[in-house]
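Before the break, one more example. Copy the sequence into your notebook; we will annotate it together after we see the structure.
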Amino acid sequence: MLAGAGAGLAAASAALSLPRAEPAKKTYLVTGCSAGLGLELVRQLAARGDRVYATCRTPAASASGVDELSQVAGDVVLVQGVDVTSDSVGETLKAALAGVKLDCIVHNAGGFAASRAEQKLDTICMDAMRRGFELNTLSVLRVTQALLPQLSAPGGKLVVISSMIGSIADNSSGGMYAYRTSKAAVNMVSKSLANDLKPQGIAVVAISPGFVATHFGGMSPEQKMKVGAKPVTPSVRGIVEAIDALELSNTGSFVHTNYGDGLQPAPW
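Here is what the structure looks like once it is written out:
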């Protein structure tokens, strides 16, 4: 045995036997939590011991009318009556979260704005375009402006759930005007936020979760699974992985979470 090796192994063995410190628990705010990705994100964050402020208009899912959010176990605080399309949402959130310090804000609330058939070139209307921007783009600015003073700095995180459908480089099929343009716009919002907030030590990421089997977009989860959608649980594990990996060194990224099978860069 090399000189000193025995002592080194003994020290390593002693270190391994020491109790390992548990990861510090974090406080999250997640928007749009009554169903789909938001609901599962609340479940997974709460299951690992984090505190989650889960916002929604009502806890019952719009597609099913069932309230699963109120049944999530763990340190979950339900914040109802939150409409991210309203300019008064900031006052609602500041009143509900008075005195709360947040480690991470997840902008999950979003919507398709109109059916696919209503988003073709010959059918799209300007009201649908406006709905898309109110829900998918301006909502992120509203919530961020309201809660930024309560986000940890340095060390805070802003997460924008976006979509590859908002990728300009990946658009090879056209259509979906309201959804595509509002998501492309929120990608730009996330990039600007990353630049503006980096001096404060706050990191920002836009995430594409991919094609997931939820009610989002007008199809049922069962219908989506038949055409290649992925299950919700591993998909959200990928989102959690992306959140945990976010730091100042990779702020301003657009990431595809690859259904929990390793993070990949997404094209803008």
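Residues 1-18 have pLDDT under 50 and may be disordered. Residues 23-265 form a domain with the Rossmann fold fold (CATH 3.40.50.720). Try to locate both features in your own notes.
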